Amino acid sequence: MKLISLNTWAGNLFEPLFDFIKDNAADTDVFCFQEVLDSSNRSAVARTPNIHLFSEMAKVLPDFTGFFAAAQDNYEPITNSQSDATLGLAIFVRKNYIVRAKGDFFINNQRNSFVPPDYTTMPHNLSYVQLNIGERLLTICNVYGASWPTNKLDSADRLLQSQKILDFVLAQPGEKIIAGDFNLLPNTRSIMMFEENGFRNLIKDFNISTTRGSTIKKLKPELGLGEHGWQEFADYTFISSGIKPIQFTVPDLPISDHLPMILEFKI
Q1: Cβ(234)–Cβ(181) under 8 Å?
Q2: Alpha carbons 124 and 135: distance in angstroms, whole number
Q3: Is this structure's pTM higher than 0.85?
Q4: Between the CA of residue 237 and those of 49, 78, 264, what are the distances in Å?
Q5: How far apart are CA 23 and CA 92, in angstroms?
Q6: Which domain holds residue 31?
Q7: Average model confidence (pLDDT) for the chain?
Q8: Per-residue pLDDT averaged across 132-151, rounded?
Q9: Of 37, 43, 166, 179, which residue has the fewest beta carbons closer than 10 angstroms?
């Protein structure tokens, strides 16, 4: 099987992003996307960022079933005054798989809790699907973790966030994959908690040097001058012991301000 996780940056780099999705659609089984926008207002102009990103993804992934998990309605700051867009998570599952269960829950704040410009109030959720793989059950979790404080270090909220994720996945039968943008650095307690509970950290095990890449440095060089400098890590993929990775790569592609995590595995 093949799974791809990516923070899409709300489609800011729309054309290269969609070229990547279309190039990988034929041999990918599950896509997990973070920072996805959707809008029920079909007459609204799809600017950059693209407020119809989820719908546009569905068009180029006809062999997949898409699941959108909303976090914040009327997400105006990212849509440049177009207040009819919803921010959330998206999972696309190839249609030949049986989806036994799906859902989402909040790991930081609650739906529509954002009070601009206070980003500590942003809601962050986890979406999941459970698939039957032969006689085995596989739970795939798509994570978008709290983005504040911007130092990506431990905080009480982030420690609680990791515990909420673990409480859920450890209660599920079968094998598990937890992937997404955690907004955390590798040496944090919030990350080590997953390793201590039996999950392999593929970013660590495969010696990945960055999940942010060169594109963000070219587009936003001022970020390197900030209080925290360049933060090379934010995204992680964790797997349970029954998942056997064949290949795990994080290619430096100009498709977002994050890099895609591509996992090929057996179960």
Answers
A1: yes
A2: 32
A3: yes
A4: 26, 26, 12
A5: 15
A6: 2-266
A7: 93
A8: 95
A9: 43
Provide the domain count of the chain: 1
- Per residue, what are the HEC states of the chain? CEEEEEECHHHCCHHHHHHHHHHHHHHCCEEEEEEEEECCCCCCCCCCCCCCHHHHHHHHCCCEEEEEEEEECCCHHHHCCCCCCEEEEEEEEECCCEEEEEEEEEEECCCCCCECCEHHHCCEEEEEEEEEECCEEEEEEEEECCCCCCCCCCCHHHHHHHHHHHHHHHCCCCEEEEEEECCCCCCCHHHHHHHHCCCEEHHHHCCCCCCCCCHHHHHCHHHHHCCCCCCCCCEEEEECCCCEEEEEECCCCCCCCCCCEEEEEEC
Share of the chain above pLDDT 90, in %: 84
CATH of the domain at 77: 3.60.10.10
Angle value at C-alpha 160, between 157 and 166, nearest 5 degrees: 145
For the cut 50, the answer to whether the pLDDT of residue 81 exceeds it is no
Q: What is the pLDDT of residue 207?
A: 98
Cis peptide before 49 (omega within 30 of 0): yes
pLDDT at residue 78 is higher than 60? no
- Per-residue pLDDT at 259: 98
Residue 17: which residues within 8 A CB-CB, separation 6 or more?
Answer: 8, 11, 255, 256
pLDDT for position 74: 86
Q: What pLDDT shows up at residue 47?
A: 56
| Burial class of residue 146 in the structure, from the number of CB atoms within 10 Å of its CB (0-12 exposed, 13-18 middle, 19+ buried) | buried
Mean pLDDT of 227-244: 93
